[in-house]
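Dear colleagues,

For the upcoming journal club I promised to circulate an example of a predicted protein-ligand complex. I picked one with calcium ion because it came up in last month's discussion. The inputs are reproduced below in full, followed by the predicted structure.
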Amino acid sequence: MRLLVVEDDATLQRQLSDALTANGYAVDVASDGREALYLGQEQSYDAVILDVGLPLMDGISVLRKWRAEQRTMPVLILTARDDWHDKVAGIDAGADDYVTKPFHMQEILARIRALIRRASGGADSILRCGQLELDTRTSRASCENELISLTSHEFKILSYLMHHLDEVVSRSELTEHIYAQDFDRDSNTIEVMIGRLRKKIPDGMIQTVRGMGYRLAKADC
Ligand code: CA
């Protein structure tokens, strides 16, 4: 899952980015409204954390523009304490949720999990596919209650596929959603990682759809 963090306070931006990265997300950052607008138009994000007070262009205007252009990614806005005007304006502009500053990182993490879950149509924080389970709260995967040891990239791929169960996901889509922007991307490595992942989860769960991509589905028993 790939996120965009838009925050002009450098310390806060780094704290958010570090915490989200540690929790298995690929994270891009922007420090002003114009950069945020551009990234949101050009890249595919699974969710955006958007500060309202930003240089060059405020967060509400950025959000309004995205929504006017039919960009539907979940957006969590960060508002100043007691500023109910920002909350109302943000929600009217198309925000899915808000968090008031100062906040606890755990709250941000929980709300982002919920937004991504809802966007993929799920209500439970544990994603399941047959015996395979992925706990979005702990970023752990297990099979028949046995923990599966995954590298961070394997986890990112599995998480994306489990959020898109039974859907065909192309290699380029996977590349877009598991790497941050500044990462040296190579779509061939996706194939390698899929191969490794296949050895760690039940046989036949990751299907190759010729010419189109991969699909995670319950293996035929
Ligand atoms: Ca700010």
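Two points we might discuss: Helices lie at 10-22, 33-42, 59-68, 84-93, 105-119, 152-163, 171-178, 187-200. The chain has a mean pLDDT of 93.

See you all on Thursday,
B. R.
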